[in-house]
Amino acid sequence: MFKPFPASFLLIVLLAPMATAELVLSLQSRSKAQPDRVVTVKKTWRADQTALIICDMWDDHWCKSAARRVEEMTGPLNEVVKKVRDQGVLIIHAPSSVVDFYKGTPQRRYAQNVPFVKPPIKLSTKNRWGTKWCWPDPDFEGVLPIDDSDMGCSCKDPKCEIREAWTRQIKGIEIFEGDAITDHGQETFNLLAAKKVENVILCGVHLNMCVLGRPFGIRQMVKLGKNVALMRDMTDTMYNPQRPPGVDHFTGTDLVVAHVERYWCPTFTSADLTGKKAFRFAADKR
Ligand SMILES: [Zn+2]
To answer: Do the domain assignments include residue 89?
Structure first.
């Protein structure tokens, strides 16, 4: 005989709050005064109040080594993106200077059409080449621990020639309904405001340049007062080991990660999100 649930039971089910997915992160940081001491704090972020910004994971790069490393990182990064998207994290694809490739797509229009919200501070301004950039700020940070003044081609001879090699985001990072595409500081701020996002995870390349300096990058997000964290195994640098401090490429990246932890924001690895091992480049033989 069919026995209906008692009405009180149904009421409890209907009123039970939707479970909100949470991200439990082991956030690693350093103080300005004691940079050699690593402090790790467990923090829980609500997934629906968090954005993941994917910086400049382009389809190609003028430096062949840099392009190879992006390709290697793409599959593992896409797995992380899929996982957190399903949990309710807002995914912002930020392939700088090539967002027009996505002109007219729902994800590009989403970023363009979300209502304007006035930011609490003036957003980053144009540099002398006309690119919007959040420059190193001596009030916030010391000089970068690596010399990237040669733009950081890590190839042995021949060295790569600088050119505009990118046309779009690398295909392996999937773009889904509900994601946004922008490289624009104001559009990024509007998106975060519309979704009431207070927590921002940065990943992608290159840490010593775009991940720190873009108008959606670490410096700008910290200055806007967001809780910012770098996913440190899902990034890379432009660093030529022939330049100071003369360490191998991956140690150079670690030095920049430590710089970020000291001056800007904590870091964590994708293992916190996937439960799997953190990503490591095959050429990293340390
Ligand atoms: Zn190169």
So the answer is: yes
